Model the fold of this input.
Amino acid sequence: MTMNDAELHEEPALSVAAAFTREHHQIDDGIEAFLADTAEHDPARRARPLLTAMEALRRHIYLEEEVVFPRLAPGPLMMPLMVMRREHGELWERMDALAEILEDDSSAASGIADACTELLSLLEDHNRKEEPIIYPHLDTDLTPEEQSLVRELLAGETLPEDWTCQALR
Ligand SMILES: [Fe+2]
Ligand SMILES: [Fe+2]
Done:
């Protein structure tokens, strides 16, 4: 392959691992933006970045559990994947609790900030294992066809109604 060929065939899109990692950061940023925005007095408007982040996190977990994890070579990842699924369950429950606080009385600052901080620290703990242990396999275990499928889903898929993570079924 000549240099030109290599350039022509260079994949412009992010690797699947990089795309999932980027989504981790976007979700964190949304929760942090909510925490930082103390100037917005309209509760619904203030909650928007948090609701967007939680929607993204639920869909992120859905894509991991339904599309990505089942396509990874199971052997050495069996235990780590079990841990990931269990932690998805904890994250999911925290999000349910947070959504309830927001619905109850979105003007009550009490409780929401603490719940967000807890969610952020759970996420940090989850992502610092998932990114180095699981994500490298996204680029090596998935076929190129599977990788394009996952990229397409990341770009446009929505969470099916009533879907819950595996740990809570
Ligand atoms: Fe993830
Ligand atoms: Fe995860």
